[in-house]
Amino acid sequence: MTTKKLMDVALKEANLKEMPDDCGIMVEGKNIKKVLMGVDMDTAELMLAKQLGYDCVVSHHPKNTNVNMLDLLNTHVMRLEALGTPRNKGQKLLADRKDELSYNQHVSNSRRSESAAKLLNMPFMCIHTPADIIGEAIVQKFIDGKFSGKPETTVGEVAEALEEIGEYKNSARKPVIRVGSKESYAGKIYVLMSGLTGPGDKILQEYFEAGVGTLVLMHIPEKDAKKIKEQGIGNVIVAGHMSSDSLGLNKIAEKWKTLGVETTMMSGIVEV
Question: What is the pLDDT of residues 176-210, one digit of tens each?
C-alpha cells in the first residue's frame, strides 16, 4: 500500500474526485502495512510511530501548507444558496471570517511536523475534509431517519438521540445544547460538520434566516453562540469535536483494514 492509495481510498469513501486543499501527503511512502492515525499528530507522535515500528502517520487536522485551504469555506456559500440565500450575500457574509483566518494562517509554523517527518524518514499525510464529509453524512442520515416527519421533535430529544451513535456514546464529552433548551422545538435539523472550520457567526445566523431550526455542529466559539442567542431564531447542538472527527476517521480506517493495512487509532479518536 502507498500513501497515494491510502488517500485515494479516503477520497472515494467521501465521494470526492479530487484531494481537497486541507489534505496532503507531506512525505510519500510505499509498502505500508501499519498506520498510526490520530486527530492531531505532530513531532512527538511521529517519533512514537518510528519507535513502535509503524510505516506511516496520518493526521486528521491539516499539516500541509496549501495557501488555498481557506477556499474550502466557500462551501458554505453554496450550501446557503441551496437553502435560498443569494450567492453574493453568502460571499459577503463569509468575507470577515476568511480574513480572520488568513491572519492566523499566515503566522503559523506550517512545516513544523513535515520537517520532523522528513528527518525521521516517516511517511506522513493528513486527511481532513473527507473524514468530515463522511461524519456529517452519518449524522444527517441518522437524524433524518429518526426525526423526519416529526414536527414536535425537541432539541433535547435530538441531543439525547445522538448518544445512540457509538462515537458520541463512548466520548468523554457528550453532545450539549449551546443555544436553545431541551424544550425548544428543533424545526429543520441541519448537520454542519464540513467546510474546513467554523464559518463565523454571520454565516451561522444566515442558516437560521434560511429556514434551519437547529444546527448540529462539531464545535462553536462562545462568542458565536452569544450572537446566535441574540438573533433569537435557532438552536445549536454541539455534538463534540473529537467524537465527530472520529466518525469519518473510523470509517476510513475500517476500509484500510479490509485492504490489509493495520491501523492503530490514538490522539483523540474515539473508538467503537
Answer: 999 999 999 999 999 999 999 999 999 999 999 99
Burial of 68 by CB count in 10 Å (0-12 exposed, 13-18 middle, 19+ buried)? exposed
43-80 pLDDT per residue, tens:
999 999 999 999 999 999 998 878 899 999 999 999 99
* Alpha carbon distance 194, 248 (integer Å): 11
To the question of pTM greater than 0.85 for the whole model, the response is yes
Please compute, for residue 125, the number of CA atoms within 13 A of its CA located in the half-sphere on the CB side. Answer: 24
